[in-house]
Amino acid sequence: MRKLKSALLGIVGLATVAATAHGEERIVSLGGSITETVAELGLADAIVGVDQSSLRPEAVARRVPRVGSPRAVPLEAILTVSPTVVVSYDDLQPPEVIPGLRSLGIRVVTVPRRPEVEAARQKVTTIADGLGVPERGRALLASIDRDLAWPEGKLRPARKVRVLFIQTMGSGPLMISGTGTTAAALLDAAGVDNAVTAFEGYRPLNAEAMLAIDPEAIVILKRALERIGGPAGLVATPGLGDTAAVREGRIVISDDAAFLGLGPGFGAAVRALREAVYGR
C-alpha cells in the first residue's frame, strides 16, 4: 500500500508539473459557496474537482469528479485529479491534508468558515487574490456591496420587522434559526430583526414556541417549502398556520445556497429580503 501511495504521489507530481509548465490552472474547489465563488470569478472551466456540497453551478457539478465530503477529503482523492491549486475552508479535515498538499508544491488557498457577512466579503477577495484574478474579485465585491447597501433616499423604518428563518436538513424536521448562523447574519444585513434570539444555532420547529414567537414575516428555503407541500403546507404546519406572517402571506422564499453558505449570491438574497419586507 505504501509503495502504491508513493507511486501515486509521483505520478500526480509529474502531472501537476506538466500542467504548470503549460500555464494551465487546475483547481480543486472544496465547499459549495467556494465553488460558486470560483465560478463567479470566471474560472469554472479550470475546476477539475469538487466536494459533495458543491452543487452549483450545475454544469460544473455534472462535469467534474467529487473528491470527498464537505469536511473530510482524503489527500489521495484530491491528488487523482492533479490540481495545481486547492481552495478550501481552513478547517479542512483530515488536518494533514493542507500541509500535505503544500509539501507537494500544490498551492492552497484557505478561507475561514465564519457565519458573518464580513467574512463572506473577505472570502471573495481572498479567493480572487489567491487565484490571480484580483480585479475580478473587486468587481464581484462591488456588485455584492451594491446589493447590501440601503437604497439611497429610502427612509429606514422606525421599527424593524421581526423575521423567522426556516430550513430543513435532509429528511429531518423543519428547523428554525436562532443566533450565530449565516441566516441570522443575513437577516441583520437586510435590516430586519431575528425573531428568535433565545438560543444559538438551529432547533426543530415547535408549535407552542411558534405561538409565542409569532413572527411578522418568514423566510423559508425553497427546498423546505417544497418538502411540506408548498404554501398550503405552511398553513397546515402546527404552530405556523396561526402566525401573523402566514395569515397575512408575508412569506419570502429564498435560495438555499445564499442563506446557508454565504456564496456570491448572498448580497442579492439580502436585497430581495429587504425589498420583500420594506418595499423597494
List the helices and strands and how they pair.
Layout: H1 2-21, E1 27-29, H2 32-43, E2 47-50, H3 58-63, H4 75-79, E3 85-89, H5 97-103, E4 107-111, H6 117-130, H7 134-148, E5 162-168, E6 174-177, H8 182-189, E7 193-194, E8 202-204, H9 207-213, E9 217-221, H10 222-227, H11 231-236, H12 244-247, E10 251-254, H13 256-261, H14 266-278
Parallel strand pairs: 1-2, 1-3, 3-4, 5-7, 5-9, 9-10
Antiparallel strand pairs: 5-6, 6-8
Helix pairs in contact: 2-6, 6-7, 7-14
Through-space gap between termini: 62 Å
Bin the strand percentage: 15-25%
The count of β-strands is: 10
Order of helices and strands: HEHEHHEHEHHEEHEEHEHHHEHH
> What percentage of residues falls in helices of 4 or more residues?
40-55%
Main β-sheet, in a few words? 6 strands, mixed
Class of secondary structure makeup: alpha/beta
Enumerate how many helices there are, as a single number.
14
| Average pLDDT figure | 90
Instruction: Write down the overall geometry.
Output: globular
Query: What would you report as the Rg, rounded to the nearest angstrom?
Result: 21 Å
Query: Which stretches are low in confidence, meaning pLDDT under 50 for 5 or more residues running?
Result: 1-5, 17-22
